[in-house]
């Protein structure tokens, strides 16, 4: 397919230029004005048989419209010797003499501009355009004729990772990241341009890119990620050392370093609310909305925090948290009803550790004391409005008094990849234990009920809800499970393994350098510590 | 028989009027864009692309014509459109007509 048209088109262009095509295109193919649309609605039909359907052609040499299916345009071309016509359904140019559609670069450019202008007038965002190789890419393809076909049974993208001494926590996170479809696409399409100009060898993002290259090289022997480990150690000192670390901590630290390095040598850390548009932010950053409603004046104070994961409490309601609460509960009881004391007790209880983002710490009025047995249970509890009792009064900015209030957490912005962290490890003063209760999780997850737009608010925010749900696509919050990190053993001596999904329905278990096939059933009945979900809208087949 | 003919003519007229309104308001283009998006999302476009490749390979690159492809791919394409996509488009058209009739 060449973009030089044909000899007949060339002579037509020489005689009339591109004007005839341009006029026809702007009135019948990509209309940018209401007047043009009226003309199109009225005049778009075959002059011979009055057919108004698809594939009506407009002659480029005279004012004649003929349909293709009944050969009326062909007859016209033959009798009048007007070889060239435009298909009004698609804007493609047909040459009767050549008997086929011909493509000309100049006309293609005109068509593209028109389409863009027309789409703009109708408020349509035309982001999708099929990829066309440029000259450089064509050269590259020609010089490298070897092609690797990815078949159904192919194991491309799978590779074991050597354990460098209790580094199974890191290996599981690396496996999960390398099997994150959108992250894989980013790195394999070479989209990372290193900003660490001062010391490019220290760039974790580049090293991540190299990891993807290794995984997709087709090499079957396990890979030794020593450089990656070293880079994470030097950038996240608290993780250095050969002891077993927490996989979740490693994930957050790794994302933070990647996020910083995306911005270059002086990258700002995650905790600064700077708006970064790096790939990590694009993929992992969600928005957690916290609404505190004053019981007195119904004023709602809203904050939205960026988050990379959702940490969910397990175990029964208020009792599951730190021993400090148990110690502090005496204070709570004595402070109830005493207006002079609320703020003295307040900080110890309402001090939310932002790292864990759990609403269940310290609120004594948690209605249910049930233990969640499913991810949905956890999420329901996470987004349930919590009544902040008498002991945890917050100063309302509207009525300027300390009042009891209700607090609710919901997801304002759903990230492309949602990571759920089941808080199985209890680190209270004096004791560490692991909650090994089985928590079921689904293969497909719909986050719509936990979104801010679904918030059931008795305080009259109905306008906002209606507007938000009208603009939000109903399928925008559906997720698919693609990686599960499991911890087996006790808190003192444990081992991390993970399941990852490569092709659709094809699960694999990764245990350091050993990769074995697994079934979805196996995955879903595993304990589950870190659950990785990917938005469905971006991934198919 | 005459009734059936009359019905057919009326249907055709109705279809023409609706189409005209759709084009004039630009709704037709918006619907096309929606349909395009949905068909890409559900993998229909990729499926058809694969089918086209097969047809080209079987007929041979030198002998294939657009008419061949259109004739073979049209019924396949129509059959492969998922029901939920059809439902959604129909709903949109209904909504549009309701708006138009109330104007």
TrEMBL record, chain A:
Keyword Transferase in record: no
Domain UBP-type: 23-121
GO cellular component, one term: nucleus
EC category: hydrolase
Domain (USP) ranges: 159-536
Catalytic reaction annotation: Thiol-dependent hydrolysis of ester, thioester, amide, peptide and isopeptide bonds formed by the C-terminal Gly of ubiquitin (a 76-residue protein attached to proteins as an intracellular targeting signal)
Family: Belongs to the peptidase C19 family. UBP8 subfamily.
PANTHER family documented for this protein: UBIQUITIN CARBOXYL-TERMINAL HYDROLASE (PTHR21646), UBIQUITIN CARBOXYL-TERMINAL HYDROLASE 22 (PTHR21646:SF33)
Protein name as catalogued: Ubiquitin carboxyl-terminal hydrolase
Organism name: Littorina saxatilis
Automatic annotation (TrEMBL), chain B:
Protein name: Transcription and mRNA export factor ENY2
Biological classification of the source: Eukaryota, Metazoa, Spiralia, Lophotrochozoa, Mollusca
Principal cellular location given in the protein's record: nucleus
Oligomer status and interactors: Component of the nuclear pore complex (NPC)-associated TREX-2 complex (transcription and export complex 2). Component of the SAGA transcription coactivator-HAT complex. Within the SAGA complex, participates to a subcomplex of SAGA called the DUB module (deubiquitination module).
GO annotation, biological process: chromatin organization; mRNA export from nucleus; protein transport; transcription elongation by RNA polymerase II
InterPro entries: TF_ENY2, TF_EnY2_sf
Organism: Littorina saxatilis
Keyword field: Activator, Chromatin regulator, mRNA transport, Nucleus, Protein transport, Transcription, Transcription regulation, Translocation, Transport
Record GO cellular component, one term: transcription export complex 2
Top-rank lineage group of the source organism: Eukaryota
UniProt-annotated location(s): Nucleus, Nucleoplasm
Similarity comment text for this entry: Belongs to the ENY2 family.
Its job: Involved in mRNA export coupled transcription activation by association with both the TREX-2 and the SAGA complexes. The transcription regulatory histone acetylation (HAT) complex SAGA is a multiprotein complex that activates transcription by remodeling chromatin and mediating histone acetylation and deubiquitination. Within the SAGA complex, participates to a subcomplex that specifically deubiquitinates histones. The SAGA complex is recruited to specific gene promoters by activators, where it is required for transcription.
GO molecular function: transcription coactivator activity
């Amino acid at each position: 397919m060449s973009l030089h048209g044909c000899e007949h088109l060339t002579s037509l262009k020489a005689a009339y230029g591109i004007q005839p095509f341009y006029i026809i295109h702007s009135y019948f193919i990509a209309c940018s004005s209401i007047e043009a649309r009226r003309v199109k609605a009225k005049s778009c039909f075959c002059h011979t048989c009055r057919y108004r359907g698809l594939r009506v052609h407009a002659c480029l040499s005279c004012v004649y419209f003929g349909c293709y299916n009944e050969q009326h345009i062909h007859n016209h071309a033959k009798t009048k010797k007007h070889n060239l016509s435009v298909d009004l359904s698609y804007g493609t140019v047909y040459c009767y003499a050549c008997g086929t559609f011909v493509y000309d670069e100049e006309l293609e450019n005109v068509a593209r501009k028109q389409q863009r202008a027309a789409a703009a007038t109708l408020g349509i965002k035309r982001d999708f355009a099929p990829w066309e190789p440029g000259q450089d890419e064509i050269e590259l393809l020609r010089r490298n004729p070897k092609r690797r076909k990815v078949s159904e049974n192919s194991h491309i993208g799978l590779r074991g990772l050597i354990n460098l001494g209790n580094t199974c926590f890191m290996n599981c996170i690396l496996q999960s990241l390398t099997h994150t479809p959108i992250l894989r696409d980013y790195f394999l399409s070479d989209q990372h341009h290193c900003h660490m100009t001062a010391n490019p060898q220290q760039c974790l993002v580049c090293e991540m890119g190299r990891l993807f290259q290794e995984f997709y090289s087709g090499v079957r022997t396990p890979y030794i990620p020593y450089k990656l480990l070293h880079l994470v150690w030097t950038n996240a000192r608290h993780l250095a050392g050969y002891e077993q670390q927490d996989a979740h901590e490693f994930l957050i630290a790794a994302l933070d370093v990647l996020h910083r390095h995306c911005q270059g040598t002086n990258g700002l850390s995650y905790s600064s609310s700077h708006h970064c548009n790096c790939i990590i932010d694009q993929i992992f950053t969600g928005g957690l909305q916290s609404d505190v409603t004053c019981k007195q004046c119904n004023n709602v104070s809203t904050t939205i925090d960026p988050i990379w994961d959702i940490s969910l409490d397990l175990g029964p309601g208020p009792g599951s948290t730190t021993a400090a609460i148990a110690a502090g509960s005496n204070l709570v009881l004595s402070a109830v009803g005493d207006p002079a004391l609320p703020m003295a007790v307040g900080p110890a209880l309402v001090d939310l550790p932002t790292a864990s983002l759990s609403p269940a710490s310290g609120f004594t009025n948690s209605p249910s004391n049930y233990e969640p047995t499913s991810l949905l249970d956890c999420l329901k509890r996470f987004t349930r409005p919590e009544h902040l009792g008498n002991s945890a009064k917050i100063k309302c900015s509207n009525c300027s008094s300390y009042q009891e209030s209700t607090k609710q957490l919901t997801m304002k912005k759903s990230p492309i990849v949602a990571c759920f962290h089941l808080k199985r490890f209890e680190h209270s003063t004096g004791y560490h234990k692991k909650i090994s209760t089985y928590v079921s999780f689904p293969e497909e997850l719909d986050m719509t009920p936990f979104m801010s737009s679904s918030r059931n608010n008795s305080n009259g925010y109905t306008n906002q809800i209606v507007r938000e749900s009208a603009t939000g696509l109903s399928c925008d919050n559906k997720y698919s499970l693609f990686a599960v990190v499991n911890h087996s053993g006790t808190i003192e001596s444990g081992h991390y393994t993970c399941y990852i999904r490569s092709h659709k329905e094809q699960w694999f278990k990764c245990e350091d350098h050993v990769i074995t096939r697994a079934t979805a059933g196996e995955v879903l009945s595993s304990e589950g510590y870190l659950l990785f979900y990917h938005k469905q809208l971006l991934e198919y087949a | 028989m005459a009734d059936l003919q009359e019905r057919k003519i009326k249907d055709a007229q109705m279809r023409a009027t609706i189409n005209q309104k759709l084009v004039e308001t630009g709704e037709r283009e918006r619907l096309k864009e929606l349909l395009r998006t949905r068909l890409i999302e559900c993998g229909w476009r990729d499926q058809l692309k694969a089918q086209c490749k097969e047809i080209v390979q079987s007929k041979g690159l030198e002998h294939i014509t657009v008419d061949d492809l259109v004739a073979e791919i049209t019924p396949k394409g129509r059959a492969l459109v998922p029901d939920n996509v059809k439902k959604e488009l129909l709903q949109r058209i209904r909504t549009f007509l309701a708006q138009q009739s109330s104007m």
